[in-house]
Amino acid sequence: MRNNVKRALTALPARFRQGPRAFIAKEDGTITIFGLMMFVLMLGIGGIAIDVMRYETQRVQLQNTLDRAVLAAASLTQTIDPRQVVENYFQTSGLENYRLNVELDEGLNYRQVSAQAEMEINSVFMQMFGIRTLTSPAFGAAEERVRNIEISMVLDISGSMGSNNRITNMRSAAREFVTTVLDTNTTADGDELVSISIVPYNGRVNAGDTIESVFTLTNEHTESSCTRFATADFAVAAMDPSVPIQRVSHFDLDNRNQTWGMFSSPHCQTNNYAAILPWEHDETALHNHINSLNAEGWTAIDLGMKWAVGLLDPAAQPAVTALIGDPNVMGDEVVHEDFAGRPALYTDNETLKIIVMMTDGENTRQYDVRPQYRSGPSNVYYHAGNDRYSVWYPGVNSWFVFYQNTWENGYWASGPYGGNDSVALTWQYLWATYTENSIAERFFDEPSDRSGNSTYYNQIRSAIEQYGDQNSADTNLRASCDAARAQGIIVFAIGFEAPQGGQEVMRYCATTAAHYYDVQGVEISEAFASIARTINQLRLVQ
Questions:
Q1: What's the predicted TM-score (pTM) here?
Q2: Closest by alpha carbon to 218, among 210, 313, 226?
Q3: Which of 116, 183, 259, 456 matches a 20 to 30 Å C-alpha distance to 129?
């Protein structure tokens, strides 16, 4: 029997004789199983990616809608309830099935709107892993706060502004800017929040009667109130009203080379044309001042910037205080009472200090009389009773007596004609009466019979000096801009069809590259409008 079974097994095919051991060792079909497993895994991962992309798309749309909604709702000019504004944005965005919570915080001069939103999205593939929904969160807040705003506008009125309709375009743009930024003053209780100072400049800056009434200028004369500064002054923002500022001499620059000429054209205007208009709130007054500006003279951007910074510095507070409610200065209230305490401290978080500066050129020339001939008694004495002039000639250590226009009848003397009855004429009188060459020719030309005075004669002929040029003025301007930047003053700069040199210093002075505008023609209106919008703009706080 055993042998029969053995013979039967032997007769079976080999594959049957191998049994379970062979089946276990068999590897046919394993790749197919692994492939199916990897396919399922890849399908799951790809599905998760798709669900995540759907989630992120919805989240971005939700966040963008929320940002736009809170910006619109926070506007102080928004008349619709802020909560309703946010809800309206969501209704028109195409989003559905969201949860929204809006919070409002507002006061006298500010409004802050914050909002939270959530939306759920059903997963397609992540359900295989037990995740049926994904929640998209969004949060945003926006605030518009009507801050106290102090602005200095530095306006170029140099001769080149008369070309290509520039002065007309500038006046229009500046007026529009004033109107826009003064809109901030429209508050429920009528508070004046925006003060604007206008600083026109060409080769000089006319401080004007108002500024001179509250700042201290040197006392060489009282004919005009143009000012100049030492190099070190530009590196300092502060302008203490009690510290004397150097007054530019009263002289005739245009006709300085006329021999025997009489004074006819003051270098610094003797009236309030193009004077500084400080801390003004009245739109009409600002517009009228801008409209009065015309193009004439050289270019001294550094002088305009120095005054602009000084009018924003807290050191000027005594000047503002003196002008508030004072009917004796200009006949009415020069500075509004709401500006008490201005210029505010730099640490005042509720005050923005801004300079808007423009030029169509670059720094050129600045003139004044040399210090030794600027004030005090001159070498010329006058005897009124006999109409006699006596001149002390230091080169020959002697006096020469003559009629004003008659050298032939003159003579040398040991003292002035009439002794103590002759009075020394001041340098201020000579500069306000004659031209530079005329002073030299009338009183200091060398008499024919005596030599040795030519040096002094030549000094008088060059007594009017060009004390500023492009290099020195650019250095001063950069120092003044550095001083402003150090105090957190925001500087917007406009190069209005300006040459390369002007554009370079404007770019340097601008707070950032985005604060500089290079414009042509009527584009200056767009630049001023953009600056005004930036000043009044809303800001996302989160």
A1: 0.76
A2: 226
A3: 116
